Amino acid sequence: VRCTVCDQGPTNVSASKILGYTTDRPFCTHPTTNKKVHVIFDVPHLIKNIRNNLTRHDIITSDGCKVSWKFINQMYEIDKQNKLRLCHKLKKTHLNPKGQLAMRVRLATQVFSHSVAASMSTCIEAKLLPPDALDTVDFLQKMDKLFDLLNSRRKIADKLQRNALPNPATGTSVLPDLLQLKSWIEGWSFDGVPNNNRISSHWGLIATIQSIVDLSQELFEDGFSYVCTSRFNQDCLENFFSVIRSKSGWSDNPTPIQ
What we know:
The chain has helices at residues 10-18, 43-56, 69-79, 92-95, 105-109, 114-125, 134-149, 175-186, 200-221, 235-246; strands at residues 3-6, 27-29, 36-41, 59-60, 66-67, 165-166, 189-190, 226-227. With 258 residues, the protein is mainly alpha-helical. The longest helix is centred in the last third of the chain and has 22 residues, at 200-221.
């Protein structure tokens, strides 16, 4: 066992802490081998929860930049008036997800994307958005890069950041990029929140990046030529549950018997 992967449900977090996990020491020790078992929180869940918190609280970065959801809303309202839209994928459900839609990771990652950042930049240049929105553009670009780095599925992908993490001995290491993004996230504060520890997705994302970097380094030392970071999320389990559920139809509320 090299790592555990779970969401940040209270039971999961409590179990990890009982096993020895702390935010400064994001691993526990295997009782037989004495090797590290890294604790990783599901990245898609973390990205979704960062989106949910941004809709409620502005994010202030360590250099004083202010990231605000209102600028994304303003860009959408401007863009939807155009016949030829800059962000044709963006819908009202992306900006105000309710009920089960708030659980869809895709609605969060499609907002934290290069296309939305580019559309906002265009609106700023056209003086349709204030210059202050540039801080939000920078935030979207960095979150897009972070998700790609933490969700790589192929050795060579269609986008540089989506490539698997290469072994530093055989290629250029991107682990410093992950650590740089981790330092950036550590500098966040949430406007109106007296203690950042109340935002579990914030400390969870910091700890998860460190765990993935540490585990990847161990795998490289064991001879791995590359690491696909999508292997460190819950997709395999959720896809399995999806197959089981489909056997009795696609009811949103299956009975225990189903």
